[in-house]
Every structure is written in C-alpha cells, then in structure tokens.
Design a protein that fits this description.
Blueprint (H helix, E strand, L loop, with lengths): L27 E10 L3 E2 L2 E3 L4 E3 L8 E3 L1 H15 L12 E3 L1 E3 L1 H4 L4 E6 L5 E7 L4 E9 L5 H15 L13 E8 L1
Antiparallel strand pairs: 1-10, 1-11, 2-9, 3-4, 5-7, 6-10, 8-9
Helix pairs in contact: 1-3
C-alpha cells in the first residue's frame, strides 16, 4: 500500500509545502530605448541549407530579436551597475521581441566569415555598425529604477554588446540613442 500525497508515513498528518521565496513585484514601468550598433551585430541561428548562421526571421522576412538575447546580456551586466543586484533579477525584466522590418534592412545584411578554432571559418549574416533598432521593456522599479536601468543598457552596450553570436568577441557593441521610461 503506497503513501498518499501530502501525508507522512509515520504520522499520516498533512505536511505543508515550503513557501516560495520568489519575490513578487507589482511596480513595473515601461521603458523604450533605441540603440545604434557601433560594431557589427552577428547572426547566430544555424541554417543548414545556406551553410551559415542567420538571423531569426518571421514569415515576412523581418529580423526578430527574441527576449532571450537581452536576458543573457542583463545577466552579465547587472553586477556592473549595482553590486546589490543579483543576476537573477534579469528574470523579472520582460522584453517585447523586437522586429527590424525587411524594408529597413534590405541591402544592409552582409556575410562575415570568422575563424572557428582549428575547424576553419563560420559565416554569419551581419548588420553593420550604424544600424538602429528599438526595444520595449517592462522593468520592476524596486529592482531597477529608470536611471539604473538606463545605466544598465549603456554599460551593456559598452562592455557586453547585443549580438546573437560572438558578443564575447566584441561584436554587437552599441550606444543608447534614445531612452524613455513611463
């Protein structure tokens, strides 16, 4: 005869599950920013037919930057802004996927070949320096008030970069050209 869920074998009394220590934030504000890449932004999604790394695209061919790229950047940058902010705070920043319209990126995308250790070269689609993009975020004010979030974005642009591939090699560095918080 098996044990019933929620009961202990010895006493058959109900055991309370431990309360979650996950914080709850209700003080979100919306932030919009525009960036301009100062170094090329490289694609990172493999396309086996084209034998290169490409940008994620929607059905119309527009480039889509999903939220996962920002989460990785924020995780690396949080402690630079404020040593009391844990990198897990990135999980409470919500990012609307950004879309670069096909009409705006038309002839800008170039192929860039980079060495891959001893294996030869990998070819990446790239957006050149000077390309601009806009992003929208929901940020909890109690973790990152607007002035700290702006600093986070600026430091991410200077020291980390926004590039689906090779940001650790310096690609995808950017500057914040517009910032607003409501």
């Amino acid at each position: 005869m098996g044990r019933r869920p929620g009961k202990t074998k010895a006493t058959e009394e109900t055991v309370e599950a431990p309360k979650s220590k996950r914080p709850v934030y209700e003080d979100y504000y919306q932030c919009k920013c525009s960036i301009e890449w100062t170094l090329p932004c490289l694609a990172g999604m493999p396309d086996l037919q084209k034998e290169k790394l490409v940008f994620e695209r929607d059905a119309e061919g527009n480039i889509v930057f999903p939220a996962k790229h920002w989460r990785a950047i924020f995780g690396e940058t949080m402690r630079l802004v404020d040593s009391t902010i844990y990198s897990t705070a990135k999980n409470y920043i919500y990012v609307e996927p950004a879309i670069l319209p096909k009409s705006e990126i038309g002839g800008k995308i170039k192929d860039m070949a980079l060495p891959v250790g001893d294996r030869g070269l990998s070819t990446h689609e790239s957006l050149p320096a000077g390309t601009k993009a806009s992003f929208s975020f929901l940020v909890p004010r109690s973790i990152l008030p607007p002035e700290k979030f702006q600093k986070l974005l600026e430091m991410a642009g200077t020291y980390i970069g926004f590039s689906p591939a090779k940001h650790k090699m310096g690609y995808g560095r950017f500057k914040v050209i517009e910032f607003s918080a409501e």
